[in-house]
Structures are given as C-alpha cells and as structure tokens.
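Q: Fold this one first, please.
A: Sequence and structure below.
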Amino acid sequence: MPTRDTPWPDGTPCWIDYGAPDVPAAKAFYGSLLGWDWTADSPEFGGYVNALKDGHQAAGLGPLMDPSASPSWTTYFATGDAAATCDRIRQAGGTVVVEPMEVGPMGTMVVAADPQGNAFGLWQAGAHTGVQVYGEPGSLVWNDAAVDDPAAAREFYAAVFGFTYEEVPGVEGYTTFATADRPLGGLGGTSPGAPKGWATCFGVSSTDETVAAVEAAGGKVTMAPMDTEFGRFAVLTDPWGAAFTVMQEPAAA
C-alpha cells in the first residue's frame, strides 16, 4: 500500500474533497463504493470529515459552501507558500476565489480558478499533510484537466507551478505534467458530452462492478468502461451530478 504522512512537494495534486448537498447520503454512497470509513463529525470545521482507507486519509467531504453551487470534487495542489502561489495565479491571469484561509492547525487552503474558469485549490500543509494513501483501489490515482484551450492552460500552470509537459503517445492533444521526472497528472482538450475542468480518478478493483454499483445507487455513466494501456477506465457521475472517474489497473502480463 503506497502511503505518505509528510507534506507533498509543491505542485503535486495532494488532496481532493467533495462539496456535498447531502453529507450523510454522500458519505454512504462513496463509503460503500470505495471502501471508506470516516472520521468523526467536526462542527468546529463546518461538518467537514476525512475519508479513511484502511486508516489512512484518502479524501475530504463537507457540506457545500454555497447551497446554490453544483456538487463537485476539487483538486488541491501542494504549496509551501500559499500567498506567493496566489500572487503567481493572479500574474498569470487566474483568479483567487477564496484567499488563503487557515484551517486551525491543519493547514492553509485556497480556492482559485485558471483563466478559463476551471476551479482548483491550494493546500499548504500543517498537521494535515494531504492524502496518505494513493495509487491503489479506494484511493486517488490520477488528476487531470479537460480544458477548452490546452496550450493556454499549459502556459498558465507552468507559470504557477513550474510544470513541464510530455505528450502521451497515441492520445492526441493530451500531455502529462511534472515538476521533476515523475508525471503528476494530465491535461488535454474537451470532448463532447464529457465533463470539463479538473477531474479526480479513483482506483478500483473492478471498473465494471463499480459502474454497476454507481448505476444501482442512482448515478450515471458518462463514458462507458474502456480498456487503455493504463487500465480499464470509466467516467461517471454520482447521484447528485458530480463527475469522477475510475481506473482498474491492467491485468499483469
């Protein structure tokens, strides 16, 4: 089980959370789907809770800050200096929606948007360092963005986080991004009918069984399961319309 309990390097997608219109129902849905337990309710943090996979932090969930907003998963990038990163966001043409906000001893959060309006977050770690389990069923395995203008987005995120990019063979217009030599996520263009913006991909043991469970619980399939060299992949929406993706590792040769 890949785990980590120290702050992630700057620019790494280090945390994900979900703004839920119905917190108990969302906990039941995702807990059953991904094998999560939950930390105790936290009135001091607005009812925000952490999802635990085998005792390790996997994601966050809380009530929608704006009841009129659509439920969604947010990708947070690690930063050692939230204020300085906000300055780079503005200089590159983005918008800081929620200024750096200390969350008790846990850390400092920011909500921002790139120049094309795609929302993302920053997390400056304190006691809470982000995801502690990753790359396996029930945990975060990938974050990528579907944007209208990939070239402009690559320029923006390079200015903010120092990303470099590498084309993925056989996937037209899609690049991985990195701050060193390890790919951290992906960025590409939009597809008709597919969700836009930053997407969260969870590892699952069986993509087909996960799809069936989502449909049985009232969710929908946006992109039917398909095999890729990286694994069996599907795009889904939960019962409240929030998009997420799932990936089953390819069978061993």
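Q: Good. Now the second chain.
A: Here it is, same layout.
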Amino acid sequence: MHFPGTTPAASSSAMNIISALLEQRTGQQIAANRAWRIETALKPLLREKGLASLDQLVAQLVATRTGELGDQVVDALLNQETSFFRDAAVLDMIADATKAMQAEMGGRKVRIWSSGCSTGQEPLSLAMLFDERGMGEGASAPEIVATDVSPAALTRARAGHFSQFEIQRGLPVRRMMTWFDGNGGDWAAKPELLRRIQFRQHNLTADAPPPGKFDVVLCRNVMLYFSQDVRRDVFAILAAGIRPGGLLVLGAGETVIGLTDRFRPCDQFRGAYRAVEPIPAKRAAFG
C-alpha cells in the first residue's frame, strides 16, 4: 500500500510499527485487508500535528518519550463504534435477567460490568432501561461498572455529552427528552443518569477485573479484534470477574466455543453464557 508523500517501503514499515503499537497497548489487531484503516483513522491526527506522512508520525513516536503521542495514536485507531440501545432485544434480555436475579438475591445488589463501553452509550442505555422497569432507584438498584481501554472515550463517557447524530442513533424522542438536556446542537446526559454508572479505565488483555464479583458481564463486539490466543486470555480475565452462575453476554458474531470451558450456553436466557466453576486439577497420587 502506498501513501502520498512517502515511499511504499517506508509506509509499509510505518504501518507495521503503528499496528504493533496498537496490539502491544490493547491486544487488538488490524487485519492485512483492513490496513487502510490506519491511514483513514490517523489523518486527523496528522493534520493536528502538522505532519505530512505516517513516516513522520512514526519518527515523532520514536523521538518522544512521554507516551502522550502514542496514546493519541492508539485512541485514533480504536474502533469506538457504538450507539444507544444497540441490539435492543439483548438489553431487554439483560433487564429480564437482572430482575430475576434481584428476586433471588434477597436485597443484594446485582452487579453489572459493561466492558469495552466506548463513549458510554451501552451502560447509559442499561441505566435508562432499569429505571423504566422500576429497578433504577433504591438500595437494590443494579450497580453498573463501565470500563474501556481508551482514556479519551472515558472522558467523553463521564461527561455524557453527545452530538445530535449520536443522540438520534437508537434513542427515541421520549427517552431523549427524559434523560438529556439540549445544549445548542449537542445533548448532555442528566446528572441523575450519569451518577448511576462508575466509569473506569481497564485493559481487557492485561488488567485484573474490577474489584468484586459481577453477576452480569457484557463484552459485546470486542473479541472480534483479538487473535484466538488473546481471546482465551480475555475469557480467563472475564471468568475471574464473574460469580459462578453469572451471565456473560457477547456480540452476535462472538462465541466461547472452543476457547474456554469456564462458560456454557444459558438455557434460560438465549444468547447468554453461564459462568461455571473451574474443574479442579486432579491431585497426583503418591505411594
């Protein structure tokens, strides 16, 4: 692939270095047939820094030791595709499961982990849905922890500010008027909605799960960007964060089959997986 202003060999080298940086920081890979994403995603950053090519960007990456530029490159390359009430039937299923768990737990809070939350639309959608189902307030209201590897995405999620385009993707007018305030062309989530969610930075491929065990874990459309080996490692991290019998919810094109024995398909809630206790290793017999 040739980028204007650079030689093909140099551009190939630059793309390899940038791809390796993304994989090192996040575990995500860019397939060879999608290498065009590198140039497309980094064009705004090149303009901002006054750089003419990917090679100049890589040269600055090597020259700077602060890591800030590397963070900006990684943030630009991450796929932050999300929307409000994405796959609404799945969110309805999670609300049903949460309601059932509340009835079983005798007042203990149901704990939910929204991993790879991007700019926050998924956990915000859950918080709205729980409130509409009469589950959002009081001592037994579900606890929602939302995490992402991207500091920039989390900054936006915590602020709760969305463009007109973002707010219209999956959010009916009734919900928009109930939970958001207009501010010029943008919309801001109301404080009473934002305070129902704890946003934290977390790297699924490297960090231990957030403290405590979770009853429901969402990890939707994240595994698609990992190699098979990294997926196995991530499933081990997710399993460590979920209580036995808890639910794992993946994206429609993702599965645990052939990758882990810590989860099995759930009969009660279609499309979810139950966490199972690890099988203890047999002790060696000594004569």
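Q: Anything worth noting on the second one?
A: The beta strands are 111-115, 143-148, 161-163, 180-183, 186-189, 197-201, 214-219, 242-250, 263-265, 272-275.
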